[in-house]
Design goal:
- Helix content is 51%, strand content 0%.
- Helix 1 packs antiparallel against helix 8 and helix 3 crosses helix 8.
Length: 171
C-alpha cells in the first residue's frame, strides 16, 4: 500500500468518522468497493440524497462567518477570499459556531476562497454536516468517496469500477 492509498483511506475515515482496518483497505480495488464497504459500515440507505453537501457546507459556513464578523450576506460568495472575510483571531469563533472543529485557518497552504473552504469541508468534514441521527445514503457516500480520490490524486474523470492501481495509477 503506497502513500496515496494511505491518504485516500485516511481521507475516507476522516470524512465519514469510521475506521477501515488494514485488511479491508488492502482489499479495496475500486471506488465501488470502497463505496460498498463504507455503506455497510454506515448502514446507508438507497434513498435519494436529500441535500447537496456543498450547499449545506456553504450555508453553514456563511451563517458562522456572518455571526462572528460584520460580513454582509451578499459579500459571502464562492469567489470571496477568506482573508477578506475574517481575521485570524475570528476563525476560532467561526470554527466553534459552525461546529466543525477541524476547520482550517486561512493561510498559505489552506483554502483561500469560500469555494475552496466549502469543498474542503465536504471532503474532510462530511460527518459534521449530517444532522444527529440522519442516515447516510449511498449517493452521498459515492460523492464523498469520489471527492476524496479526486482531491488526493488529482484525477477528475474515472469510473466507479476503475482499478485504483491499474487504471488510476494509485501507488
Amino acid at each position: 500500500m503506497g502513500l496515496d492509498t494511505v491518504e485516500i483511506v485516511m481521507g475516507w475515515e476522516a470524512a465519514f468518522g469510521i475506521h477501515i482496518d488494514d485488511d479491508e483497505a488492502f482489499a479495496l480495488r475500486t471506488p465501488r468497493m470502497a463505496i460498498d464497504l463504507i455503506a455497510r459500515k454506515l448502514g446507508a440507505t438507497d434513498q435519494p440524497t436529500p441535500v447537496c453537501f456543498s450547499l449545506r457546507a456553504f450555508h453553514r459556513l456563511r451563517a458562522s462567518v456572518m455571526s462572528v464578523t460584520s460580513v454582509a450576506r451578499r459579500n459571502f460568495r464562492p469567489a470571496a477570499r477568506l482573508k477578506d472575510l475574517a481575521t485570524r483571531g475570528q476563525w476560532d469563533g467561526i470554527r466553534s459556531r459552525c461546529g466543525i472543529a477541524s476547520l482550517p485557518n486561512p493561510g498559505w497552504f489552506s483554502p483561500r476562497t469560500v469555494a475552496d473552504l466549502t469543498r474542503w469541508t465536504v471532503i474532510h468534514a462530511a460527518k459534521e454536516l449530517k444532522s444527529a441521527g440522519e442516515p447516510w445514503t449511498r449517493a452521498e457516500i459515492r460523492n464523498i468517496v469520489r471527492a476524496v480520490v479526486e482531491d488526493t490524486i488529482g484525477i477528475r474523470k474515472f469510473g466507479d469500477d476503475d482499478d485504483f492501481i491499474k487504471d488510476l495509477r494509485v501507488d
